Each structure stands twice: as structure tokens, then as C-alpha cells.
Amino acid sequence: MVNKLFGTDGMRGKANSYPLTVQTVMKLAQAAGAVFKEEEALADKAETTVSERDAASCKMSAAGRRPVVIVGKDTRISCDMLEAALCAGLNSVGYDVYRVGVLPTPAVSSAVPFFHAAFGMMISASHNPYADNGIKLFGPDSFKLTDEETAKIEELLFKESLEEYLAGADEIGRTFDKDYSDEYIGRLINSLGDGASLKGMKIALDCANGAQSALAGEVLRRLGAEAFILNDRPTGMNINEGCGATHPEYISEAVKRLGADVGLALDGDADRLIMADETGKVADGDQLIGALALELKEAGLLSSDTVVATVVSNMGLEEELKKYGLSLQRTKVGERYVVEEMRRIKAQVGGESSGHLVLLDYASSGDGLLAALHICKGMARTKQKASQKLHFFTPFPQVTKNVRASNKEEVKKILQAPKVQEALRASEQALEGKGRLIIRESGTEPLIRIMVESKDAALVESQSSFLSEVMSKEVS
Question: DSSP letters along 158-176, please?
Fold first, then answer.
């Protein structure tokens, strides 16, 4: 089964347009509920040791109550509408729903095992504009679902009717509001260890008018930092608008204007982080992956000598890690694939250049504020300025250009066009032995991403421009 609706980070699209309509989202909830009940039933029948995920799922039966699903959201205007659809769909197939309200994606994922829930659903389109929205799913162990699991859900989602899965009158679920914010704040602070303090540090934090708007300032203040909290007044339509991790120029300017020691920029659901030093110079996810790995190593907390990143992470990161006895393992683009590889090889640090940063000892998914706290703790420990801490390596010249199509079908058509194929062969020949070319489809938008990397900056620019121009001519 090939996933038709799920991308690398859940299901995403324009709110109130297919598939992000009330009808489809409600049916998605019913399909997910049916799949997880089936997995639980299979686990209950198994005579051998069940997997980690199935074992967690079995907790809901032992609790002697209806199975529970956690539902969280970011600050988009469409979230209330989609939340209502999810809750109705889940109730209709026999689940109680715990609404945890506006919370970062990593908080929602960690709430699933905390409440012994069957699974969790987060309503967010992450770094996208307010008009977009999406649904992310987490299993009972708090990790994102695999391709195989989402394929099972999609198979049911495309059935004409799910009436056979509806609960009887006495089995219909109910919806309850639950507060998980204090527990999440405690998890963040406790991850730093006893006595951790950021006292004396001036930190500028851009919340992107998103899911971390109400909590991040409290975390920094409890740790003793002088916090300048920015873009923490969501209206439902200003999430990510000219701010946050996708607009690092904002935090760059704010750090200088406020005289802060360091700047932090999150995205709409707070699973990404971009930072700026005291001079306003920006550090992307690759730089922060290196900074985190080195911090844990120097603090004696790194037991693994492998760091996980993606195929588009800069070659400069890989070369610099070697100097500290660390190797880089690459995966497909997508935080989910990074986490899967980290779990497989027991790595502790991983992430993406976009700012998804995973500290697997403390969280099962990217958490921008968690990563920032550990970097700031390192600054306090070593008395280093952000300009010394954040810029881990000298990057190779690298350019990523996007070609936008009208839909994902057109993306595939462009990539298969004879002129595009000929151009790709020519570029690969030009870069042979001198650099890398990576062409990939966005997992969330109808985009072709062209990444060219080499020590030769002129070659990088010429080849990326050449391919972008060829592909753009194929757009209808």
C-alpha cells in the first residue's frame, strides 16, 4: 500500500479543503481508532513477548476503562474545528479523548505514555502559514507512526463506510479537558539535571505566535534567565507570519536590539529551533546538531559515538565531527526517519538542518525548547559566548532551490520529463568528485527541492540555477 495522504510528517493541506475537511478528519480519527484497537486485540492474543509499542498499548486494557486518545493543537484558527472533528470521530469508535489544548508537538507526544493512552493526535502544520493545517499521529510509546502503520490507517480511510467499527450505544466515548502543561514544563527543566540554572543569561525567544507562546517564558524564568519573549500573542492567523524558525532574520535583529546573549526561534508547533548569537549571526540545525553533540560529549553524557542527520546536512558537519571521534549517519529527509535510525543504532543526538533537533534520552521527537535549554546550559557551564558555542563548523557552500508545482502529481511529471532527466545527468557529471546533488520531493508541499553542495561556491550556484531553470520551464 502506498500512502496517498500521509507525508513525512503526517497529513497536511489547506484547512477546510480536502483532505483537511471536517468529514475526512473525522473519518481519519475513526480509521486510526479502528487500527489501534485491532493492534491491541492482536497483542492481547499473542503468547510470545510483545513489542514495545504493543506492550504500551496493552496498558489501556489493564486500566479497566475505555481506551484513551490524546488530542493537542497549535494556535491556528482552524484547529478548533478540526479538534471537534477528531474528538467526534474517536468518540464514535469507542475512545475517550483527553484534550490537552494548545501545546507543542513534543509535549503532546510525551503526554501519550503519561496518560497510558492508546495513541495521540496533534493538529498542526508546523512551520506552514495559518491557512494550512495537518494531523500528526503518535503511538502509545510516544513515537511517530511508521509508514506501515499509516498505510493501514489509509486503507481504512479510503473505504466507503466505517460503520462496522462504530461503538454501541453504551460504548460511545466522551471528551475531557486535561492539563499537561505543568508536567511538560517539569520534564524540560528536569532534563537539565539537579541545580541547573541559566541565571544571569539574557535570552530572546521568538515563539512564532505558536504552540509554545504560553509556556516558554515560564520555563526560562524558572531557570533564572532574563527572558525577552517575542511573538507570543497568537491571533489564529499570525502563526509563523514573518517570525519564528522560518524567518531567522527576526531573531537576528531582536538579539542585537535587546542586547541579548543569545536568541532562540521556534516554529508554529515548537519542534524546530534556529538560534542567533549575540552578534545576530544565525546558526541552523546542522550547527546546533554539532553543538549539542559536543556539549553532551564534554559533559560526559554521550555514550554513543554516532550522530544522525539527513542526506541534506552539510558535509562540513560530518568533517568536523570526525575531529572529536564522532561519525555521522545519514537518513532520508524527515525527522521520523532520523528518529527511527537513532533508535536502531542507539544514538542520542540527531536532527535536520531545518532545525528539528532530537535528544533521544529526553524526548521521542524534535523539541526546539529542549534543545535550546541544553545548549544554553552548555554556555553557562563553559562560560562561552553564543558566538563561540553555536558555530560548530565552517559549512561547505550549499544551495537549496525550490521549484513549485500545482500539485504532487505535477511534481512527478516534471521529474520524469526528458529535458529534466538530461539536465540531471549533466549536473551529476559536472559535480562528479567535486560535490553532491540531491533532488527530492517535499513530503508536505508540491515542491521539488534542488540541493547542490561543493567546496566550489561558483559551481554550486551555476548548477543549482541551471537545474532550477530547466525544471521551472516544465511547470504548467
Answer: TSS--GGGPPPTTT---EE
pTM over 0.85: yes
Do 201 and 223 touch, CB atoms closer than 8 A?
no
Length of the chain: 476
58-63: list long-range contacts, CB under 8 Å, 24+ apart.
59/116, 59/140, 60/116, 60/117, 60/118, 60/140, 63/116
* 32 grid coordinates: 486510526
69 is written with which cell numbers? 486518545
Those residues with Cβ within 8 angstroms of residue 351's Cβ, 6 or more apart along the chain or in another chain: 285, 288, 289, 292, 308, 309, 335, 338, 357, 358, 366, 371
Q: Which regions in the chain score pLDDT beneath 70?
A: 1-3, 41-64
Which residue has 474528538 as its cell numbers?
Answer: 87
Measured CA to CA in angstroms, residue 265 lies from 60, 161, 322, 355 at distances of 37, 44, 28, 10
Structure confidence by residue, pLDDT tens digits, 457-468: 999 999 999 999
- What positions carry a catalytic annotation? 126
C-alpha cell at 191: 532534563
* Cβ–Cβ < 8 Å for 268, 240: yes
Greatest alpha-carbon span in the chain: 69
Quote the CA–CA distance of 87 and 173 in Å, as a whole number: 9
pLDDT tens digits, one per residue of 247-261: 999 999 999 999 999
pLDDT digits (tens, 9 = 90+) for 321-351: 999 999 999 999 899 999 999 999 999 999 9
| Cβ–Cβ < 8 Å for 282, 275 | yes
- Here the cell at position 42 is 492482536
Quote the CA–CA distance of 16 and 310 in Å, as a whole number: 33
Query: What is the rounded CA–CA span in Å between residue 207 and residue 243?
Result: 8
- CB atoms under 10 Å from CB of 300, counted, come to 7
